[in-house]
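Field notebook, page 219. I keep forgetting to write these up properly, so this time I am using the form the group agreed on. The chain and the ligand, protoporphyrin IX containing FE, are recorded exactly as supplied. Prediction of the bound pose follows.
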Amino acid sequence: MKQLYVKRYSPNQRANHWIVAILFFLAAFSGLALFHPSLFWLTAFVGGPQWARILHPYIGIAMFVLFLFMFIMFVGANIWRSRDSEWLGKAPGMVGSGDESKMPKVGKYNGGQKLVFWSMTWCLVVLLITGCLFWQAWFASSVPIWLQRIAVLLHAVAAFVMVLTAIVHIYAAIWVKGTLHAMVRGSVTAGWARRHHALWYEEQDKRGALTTDPNVKSL
Ligand code: HEM
């Protein structure tokens, strides 16, 4: 019997995702280097200390703008539903036992993925606003120093939460076997979809979207 696949991401969505991921790493490395001298060595990833200082805000803005496209494409599937709270409540038990059979059925994304989506969204909004407030090259001279101090603190807190969120996101993408295929090839196996996102699978099956082709040209 031939392996069946369900299309999950278009080439544009995947390109957008991976550019945001690369920008995230560049922003995180240059930002962490500015945060503490012990992390100075991370400036090597962006061409040295001067470049880290100059580029960090521009990399951040590029990430924000590109994430905006992701936000528009994915927000519809990330609206919070009551089943997501139920899923989240049962998630620690599932992670501990590895048994997914008692989890409520979910649509395209589960409660954990939605939490990651909204955490990334709000962290990026806070990072953009606070970062501009103390951006020496452009705006800082017209912002009172007390506001800049609050902005620096909030910027660091949002960056910390964002890094933790990204760690959870990357760990989950690797830990749940077959998930990376979604962002690399654009499709998942029908078995993966039925097991992890049953409601979404049923929807796709009903509209005849199951295919033997693992490569996605369009959705
Ligand atoms: C090396 C780092 C990363 C890996 C390996 C990775 C992997 C993945 C994978 C496999 C998916 C598909 C999940 C699914 O369809 O169920 C996905 C979706 C997604 N990723 Fe990433 N990702 C990375 C970095 C990032 C970063 C830095 C961001 C944002 C700043 C991000 C934002 C998203 C979003 C918004 C989705 C759509 C899922 C949703 O809306 O909840 N990813 N990622």
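OBSERVATIONS:
- The first strand starts at residue 5 and ends at 7.
- Strands lie at 5-7, 187-189, 210-211.
FOLLOW-UP: compare against the apo run.
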